[in-house]
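Notebook entry, structure prediction.
Reason for the run: the old model in the group folder had no record of what sequence produced it. Starting over properly, with the input documented here first.
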Amino acid sequence: MDSFEALVEAMGDPIRSQILFALADKPDGTTIRGLAERLGEPPRRVRYHLAALVEQDLVTVAGEAKRRGVVERYYRVAKPPIIWPLEADRVPETQMRKIAMQIFRFILADVREAVAAKTFASQGDAQIRIAGDVDARGWKELATIHERMLKEVEAVLEDARDRLVTNPESPVTAVSVALLFKLPTPHAS
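New structure, fully documented this time:
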């Protein structure tokens, strides 16, 4: 199985996709215990799925640290769990639906956490929904805009990570979400 097929399979799995998304949020890596707490899963289950992801080269060991006489490994994603629009044609439709549902569940979990902490819809947040009818060309143009935006978001996050290394400022965990999907017809726009 090549790395793209392994990624597609993992992103459709409820636990493995959550591990990939949680690790993508922590570019410096995190431990099994940290993942278990973040996901609300038992460490044994996380360890099992993490081992499979490491074997598939989707996750790597970022480093090790000794804690209370025990060596803890820090894990990170080898490649962000993203399937770009041009790659989506290689994925069966049923598998893309599974992946979309896993992503949406993770987004909702992030929103629930932010709402509970009263950080959602705070000053400076942006929640925008725009809908309308498009033709095939319009759909392709929207997909291109979303892909470009996501790449720009990745660049901003990388630049911010670099600045935070030398900046004593407390980091803020930001979640940027871009959704583009087709509604069943007919819908009023």
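Summary: The first strand starts at residue 59 and ends at 67.
The old model has been moved to the deprecated folder.
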